[in-house]
Each structure stands twice: as structure tokens, then as C-alpha cells.
Design a protein that fits this description.
This protein is α/β, with parallel strands linked by helices. The strands form five sheets. It has a seven-stranded mixed beta sheet, with helices on both faces. It has a five-stranded parallel beta sheet with strand order 7-6-5-8-9, sandwiched between helices. It has a three-stranded antiparallel beta sheet with strand order 3-4-19, with no helix packed on it. Helix 2 packs antiparallel against helix 4, helix 3 packs antiparallel against helix 6 and helix 9 packs across helix 10. The longest helix has 20 residues.
Amino acid sequence: MSVFTVINPATALPIREVARASVDETDAAISRAVVAQRSWASLPPVARADALRSFARVVEAHIEELAQLEVLNSGHPIGSARWEASHVAQVLNFYAGAPERLSGQQIPVSGGLDVTFHEPYGVLGIIVPWNFPMTIASWGFAPALAAGNAVVLKPAELTPLTAIRLGELALLAGLPEGLFEVVTGSGSVVGQRFVSHPEVRKVVFTGSTSVGTDVAAGCARELKPVTLELGGKSANIVFADADLEKAAGSAPGAVFDNAGQDCCARSRILVERSVYDRFLALLEPAVQAWRVGDPADEATEMGPLISASHRSTVEGFLDGADVAFRGSAPSGDGFWFAPTVVLAGPADRIAREEVFGPVVAVLPFDDEADAIRLANDTVYGLAGSIWTENLGRAVRVSRGVKSGVLSVNSHSSVRYWTPFGGMKASGLGRELGPDAAEHFTETKNVFFATD
């Protein structure tokens, strides 16, 4: 088995070597999951629910360990990392309620009784990105397990450590061997095998739109269901009647959280022209006050970018850009990048493509219709924010903007107990919310003749 080296992005130093699985090793993990799933699905729903609650309790007992691993491997600030680890336990607890609520339907028919059942797919392949390794993994494996499936999870090569530990904690909690397999390795080998293996009956992918398109095409050839949560170029729309101080003060967190490495980042700020200059004047001190530094420091709000190559990609977006102002960042080892505000026009690359870094483009608009037009002038449709004191305008604009998740006078995006989906090139939607477990099952209809 070959290996790859995991790097600490805050220091650029190696952490440890991790196995890179082959096709045969991936197949072996899938085979173990097939066997485990049969027994898991046959358990009474209350037994699966209890097992998931036990998993949650074990995660809760290891929150600090998981958080420190995320700081080391992903460069997430410690406060954020603790929240992310806690979030995994909360997601498990929430979806532990699903096994006993996967109720079918009784449909009125003549001559008999027609009922539906929710049957698990079997084995699911879940491919997780490097930006939020724990949280995004839990959004897939928790409802999938609750629905009676087994999970084979592939973390990103850059950030596999918390996923590996979660696999170990699942066993410690008493989940059956093989039920929750973590397979480390490259997407071209492990991820591709999820797509092509006949025993993997559904694939859940979070990542770039370009790779997601390939995953979808591969699954289509296999007639295999797929969930895709892809890129974003989300708009943060600020109207003249908004609380400008609050909108400007919160804008850095909306785009620079996780160093902008967030598909829901509000990476375009659209500001009504009459308050454009005023908003920029309020935004500048908020950006310069954004604390970038050692992710182990409790005061840090933003850590490094994930890798040297990704930093080069982000830097490339500033070529020829009109930089208005920047924050500060450490200059030592590590993949540091200062928060940056760019003035842009609608046709500029910085206003159209996903940067996936701490860079935000600010554009003026003239009126409500213009704001909606600009917000929709992108291939993406994942998230966004609307700032206004006018309730009618908030409703009109939220209906007009083509995005899966929007917030008014807030930058809150994703909750595991509410739906989360994307429009256009942002994907086919993430199955969260109270009915999420149903999306990890197939519907079976049975007619019982009574004549």
C-alpha cells in the first residue's frame, strides 16, 4: 500500500503519513460494508437509533481531541474546530430519531390495499472535501446510517485525520465492524471506484463543480443515484435601508470564515449605489480588524489556506484586480493570505468565478431589479444574504434570487434540521432536514389484492 504525507497548513510541516488505498483495498472495504449492512438493516429501528446515540456520546467525549486534530490538519481556528466536532455529535443525535420515523404510506385504491416502504439502498459511497472534513461527512453518514445503510467514506487527501478518528470512534461506540468504513486515498482511485462498483448503490459528493460533473456522468452510466453539493458564488445584497453598520460588520465573517474556503461564502457584496461609498468606509475597519493567525490561539478568527498550491490559485485571482484594501496575515511559514476586498464589475473574473479564498468582490447596483439580476448573473445558486428593513422587499428578493439557501439580515446558511440544496451548477442538493433519511432509501410500493 502506498502512502501520502499530511501537511500542517499553518507551519507547512509534515504531520504523518496516511495509507493511499488501491482499487483492491477499496473493493475489500466495500465487501465488508455489504456484509455489515445486511445485519444492520435487519435490526429493529430502536436498536439503530440507540447505536447512533451511543456514537454521538462517544464523539461528545472526544470533542477536544477531534478539534485539536482539525486545527493541526486543516488550520481551522480552535473555536471553530470545537464547534465542528460538537456539530458531528448533534447531527448524530438528530438523525438517531429517524429510524423509528421512516413510515410508509397507505394509498387508497380499489380492490385491495396499497402501501409503501422505505428500503435502504445498501452501501453508500460518501466523498468528502477538505474544507469542512467533519461536518460535511456527518451530513452524509448520519442520515445514511439511520436509514439502514452502510457507509464507505473517502476523506480528502489533504484532510483525512478527523475522518479516520471518527471511524475509530464508531467502533468504540459499538457500531458493527464494516458498517462505517473510512478509506483514504485519491479521488481517481477510491472515489472513482465508488462510482463504478455495483455494490455501491448511491454516491454522495461534495466538492468542485467540475469534478461533480464527472461523478454525475459516471453515476448516470451506472444508473446510480447521486447527491452533489458543489460550488458557489453567493451574493450578499445590501440595500440602502439596511442597518449598514451591522451589514458591514458581519460581512467579513460571511466570506472570510474558514479563510473563504466555503462553498456558501458570500464572496460578492452587492451594494445599492446610493450607500456604496458609505458601506465601503464601514467595511474597511471591519476587514482590518479580522484576526488572522495561529489557529491554536483562542482569539484567532481565520487560519491559513489549506496548501501552497491553493494559495497560488487564490493569488492568481488578484492579477489585474482593483484591490480596495486588505487585512493582515502572518508572514512566516504556512499558507497565509490576508483578507482582501476588490472593487469589481459584473464581467470581471473575480465577480464570476469561485475563488475559494478570503477575497470578496464589491459591486454597486441601482435598484431591486438590478440587485436580483446581478445576484443571478452566475452559473451558481447555492446561498446568499439580503440586508433590508423592508419586509416586502426581503420576500420579493428572496423569491427572485435563484439560490438554495438564503438569509435575511443574517449570514446563517446551513442547519442540519432544515433543508439545504443548491440550484443551477451548485448541485443536486444536500439531503438535510427532518426528511433527510428518506433520501437515503428507495421507495417500494406493494399492492395487496383483497378481491
